[in-house]
Amino acid sequence: MLDLRLTWLFAADSRALLDGRLLGLEKETLRMAPDGYIAQTPHPAALGSALTHPYITTDYSEALLEFITPPLAGPEAALRFLREIHQFVYRRVGDELLWTASMPCILAGESSIPIAEYGRSNLGRMKHVYRRGLAWRYGRIMQVIAGIHFNFSLPDEFWAAFQDREGDRRSLQDFRSESYFGLIRNLQRHGWLILYLFGASPAVCKSFLDGKATTLAEFDDHTCYGPYATSLRMSNVGYTNRTEKKSGVNVCYNSLAEYLASLSQAIHTPWPPYERIGVEVDGEYRQLNANILQIENEYYASMRPKQPPQGNEKPILALRQRGVRYVELRSVDINPLDPLGVAAPQLRFLEAFLLFCLLAESPPLDAAERRMIDDNQMAVALTGRDPALVLQRRRDSSLPARRWAEEIVEALRPICELLDLGESGRPYAAALAEQRGMLVDPDRTPSARILAEMRASGENFFRYARRLSEQRRDALQSEPLAEERDRFFAEAAERSLREQAEIEAADDMTFDEFLRRYFQVDVPTEDRGDAAHNG
To answer: Measuring CA to CA, which residue among 21, 25, 73, 22 is closest to residue 532?
Structure first.
């Protein structure tokens, strides 16, 4: 099936269908105080409103910035926009550093992590209470792990031609949605390769563990690590949906309808441990509700199907009404070896990889295969560079991880050839060759290089990442930001503050009533941060 679809795309009148593809980036980064601890200062006013700014907001913590590019044509455009955000922000955070790693800087326990604030409006209060609920359910510490999200979409012209080629008679919206879900299922099957190639969190500051027992090895008195680890962020050391698994609710990706039904079930099913926490206690909200999930975004997944909300529409309703518009890959670590945490060859590889996931056959997932997927991801996150690592490929067979990886990379070769048509040079083939080199020599992977550099310099994780963070700051501050681009972001900040004030002034109901309406199935609600990619 993959070969047949590629043959169709190589045809002269089909190759251009890929030219309208768009990608966007969302990068989280902690603000760190000069003493090395997570910043305690509020979100800088010069950066605008975290509630309404389209490009600069916060994630879980007041100190956890999130930079968002619009959907753009090509890696260079996305990286250029991301670089400009960094330059703008660095001129407005004083002596604070932007932490250049996924695992956090020094933490002084749960109470040292300030939960993000979004103003006095019902909308802003809901976002804050949701995060307060995460603290009660999972603790604050795991919420300040940072990552990069890669948003990817293909144009309507591609989908119309692809549907015609497949002989599919559904509506274009339904065909596009179900095709994206096929992509997501294959991403889950093969996504462990992303952790191997781009995992960049093999070590962690002991303050992150907060005194808890760990099976990680000790690097020194202040750092733990996995000798063969690739991405502790994506392992059981990082963020997982343990509660959903315990409760028996599994979000299903076999179709849009099953996805929405299973996600809705988790959102509306009470969970006794959360009921014991309480919702409103002594006049203060601890969480939005006592259900398995407070809202859709609480469910962590390596990829999400997305549809830009209209106004304050709920994400689940946007998907139900207009289908999937793009996908959001969430399993990419911040690479401290790169000035921006991500580089063009990596983005080119991800484009080719997601096209492979779309064009290859993608049968439904059953419970047994979902367990294999989870086991494979955990194994690669914790021991991915172990040359003896074997992964489960099917219910009754296994395969050495390196051999399976080589098969996938070989399948990407014609896709990269396709994407290189019309390009100057062969940038996609070059990106593929770079990743293939990491299969031949695991010491070339970011995770291995980070540990090797820490050993060579005699630095623990914190000192190593701090030095690189300072180098990135100095380099970005030394590069001039064009006056019109500085003005562009400054005006966006000012506009966002006005928009927040307008939202606060327009509130005409109590917070209790606002929440009641929010959780009515047919009432549109909010998730402004997810509107970043409207392609």
So the answer is: 25
Both tokens of residue 378? 């955990």
SS3 for 232-256, per residue?
Answer: HHHCCCCCCCHHHHHHCCCCCCCCH
Q: 56 has which bridge partners?
A: 67
CA distance 289 to 271: 10
End-to-end CA distance of the chain: 27
Residues whose CB is less than 8 angstroms from the CB of residue 76 and which lie 6 or more positions away in sequence, other chains included? 344
Burial class of residue 504, CB neighbours in 10 A (0-12, 13-18, 19+): middle
Asked if residue 529 lies in contact with residue 54, where contact means CB atoms within 8 angstroms, the answer is no
CB atoms under 10 Å from CB of 395, counted, come to 10
Domains of the chain: 2-532 (3.30.590.20)
Give 14's contacts (C-beta < 8 A, 6+ positions apart).
8, 161
Q: How many CA atoms lie within 13 A of 123 on its CB side?
A: 24
Q: Could you tell me the pTM of the whole model? A: 0.94
Question: In a structure prediction context, what are the per-residue pLDDT tens digits for the chain, which is 535 residues long?
Answer: 999 999 999 987 777 899 999 999 999 999 999 999 999 999 999 999 999 999 999 999 999 999 999 999 999 999 999 999 999 999 999 999 999 999 999 999 999 999 999 999 999 999 999 999 999 999 999 999 999 999 999 999 999 999 999 999 999 999 999 999 999 999 999 999 999 999 999 999 999 999 999 999 999 999 999 999 999 999 999 865 454 455 666 899 999 999 999 999 999 999 999 999 999 999 999 999 999 999 999 998 999 999 998 877 889 999 999 999 999 999 999 999 999 999 999 999 999 999 999 999 999 999 999 999 999 999 999 999 999 999 999 777 899 999 999 999 999 999 999 999 988 899 999 999 999 999 999 999 999 999 999 999 999 999 999 999 999 999 999 998 999 999 999 999 999 999 999 999 999 999 999 999 888 854 333 333 333 333 3
CB half-sphere exposure, 252, CA atoms < 13 A: 19
Which residue in the block uniquely carries the two structure tokens 């090895």?
Answer: 217
How far out from the chain centre does Cα 250 lie? 20
